[in-house]
Amino acid sequence: MPANPDAEKNNPCLREQDLVHKCLNKNNYDNGLCELYFSNYKNCKDFWYRVQRERRAKGLYPYLPDLADRARIKQEYMSTKPGGA
Asked: How many angstroms separate the CA atoms of 30 and 6, rounded?
């Protein structure tokens, strides 16, 4: 069980964050060897920041969607972006 049971609810990029930490631990904290993980984490944070900003502008609450809705939101984004599925 994680130290913070609400971590996943409050951080939609928790998995990406954990992968960064695992990579750093595995590679003796050499950031250069973990650039792909850092990039993926940054893209995740940017995506969910945009989602929150759009929801706030539309008056939708909570600004960060519930866990159950996140997969659907990501799928909708992937299907509408150029080159998406």
From this structure: 30
